[in-house]
Amino acid sequence: MLAIDQGTTNTKAVLVAADGAVLATGSAPVALSTPQPGWAEQDADDIWQSVLHAISRCLATAAPVDIVGIALSTQRESVVGWNELGKAVGPVIGWQDVRTSAWCSTLPPSVDTLVRERTGLRVDAMFSAPKLHWLLEHAQADHVGTVDSWLIHRLTGCREHLTDAGNASRTLLYDVLDLDWSTSLLEAFDVPRSVLPEVRASNGGFGTTSGVPGLRDGIPIVAVLADSHAAMYGQGCTQAGMIKATYGTGSSVMTPVDSFVADGCTLAWLTDKPLYALEGNIVSSGAALAWTTELLGLPDVGALVELAATVPDAGGVVLVPAFAGLGAPHWDRNARAALTGMSSATTRAHVARACVDAVAHQICDITDTIASSGTTPRRLRADGGATVSDLLMQTQADLLGHPVEAADVAEISALGTAELAWTTLGETTAWATTRTTRLYEPTLAPEPRATRRTHWAEAVAAVRTP
């Protein structure tokens, strides 16, 4: 299975055998531009070229294999438009982009109520519908979709316009109960159904390859998942109480639930039946690490974490990385970043440590919310680039007061969608049960844990709008 994982900053291609073994990998970077404050854009053709480069690099290191199918996972919520010739019109508007925040605030409360009742989400500039509204006003697009839809279009020789139900559920336009585009929501956001892709089950088949360099024609696209959903599948989180956190540019915390709830819920995937999950989205996680790295003049995030490890704690310093406002559970786009608690004794190491703490605190904010909804967390399964840091993972366990299992594979989203694809083809899989992990047990006593959590909550409250 050729698994393609298209993320915010890079694209990975992974050859995965039926037993879950990774046979070869390749990757390619993807640029992100910020032409104005609050804007985040990518080039659709650059994303497609990154897919081709990743595939080429993967196949160049592999022994000859027969690729029986393609599995695709992609960044969510980002949108792209293209014309009848298959040419992208306008930029890819990234999930981090908040140019539509002011417009969102003009929508009547009834729209937010409808969104919550039919999608489980809320009106926010992170999701696709406001971006699609903006894109359709500023570009002549015959077709629009999320990144998965764009890549399916290109992989199939510009023949198909399709998406999976999980990606569709992140648009604010897809009714996750009726499992169809919602006429009422389309009208609320002024997005015509005619420009949207057909929605299929996550393993419903998405056409076959045509004209893709390095690949034969006719390879079926077997399964498609949003990247955070694919990570949850790859982590084996399929039952209530199992929580996974993906540490990327932002972070996603998800836990399956037995049925839909009208707040903070998402459709993780649709196979023979839908699987719903509670989810919280953090806007700035890896982005906070990158920002602090640049602020301190360090060469890379690894150097930041090394510096943070030279002090036992942040010395009272708290960083709230609300560079584009706050995501879950606060959802305050008007909040602004702050670095507080400094004194004459504060060093660069304390600031670095405060950044590591901030990544972990934000995860805790969401798991606390999940716990308050009646789902009792047992342990956290962690994945994503930042999980290579022992300091971050131990800090996470200490602030949670629960064990953290960090995946030992960097390609968990690719493996998740590959596992769904192999299962669809009839293979018996249970890869998560055999995968090695690193276990971090909490070592912080309850009282200092509570103190640190209180200081964080106070700092968050200070940066929020009244």
Strand arrangement across the biggest beta sheet = 16-17-15-14-20-21-22
- Counting DSSP E segments of at least 2 residues, the number of strands comes to 22
As residue ranges, the low-confidence spans are none
Overall geometry? globular
Helix proportion: 25-40%
CATH class of the domain at 2-228: Alpha Beta
Count of helical stretches: 15
CATH superfamily of the domain at 2-228: ATPase, nucleotide binding domain
Tell me the CATH topology of the domain at 2-228. Answer: Nucleotidyltransferase, domain 5
Percent of residues in beta strands? 15-25%
Mean pLDDT metric: 93
Helix/strand-derived category reads alpha/beta
Separation, N- and C-terminal Cα atoms: 51 Å
- Rg, Cα atoms, Å: 21 Å
Strand count, sense and barrel status of the largest sheet are: 7 strands, mixed
Can you tell me the CATH architecture of the domain at 2-228?
2-Layer Sandwich
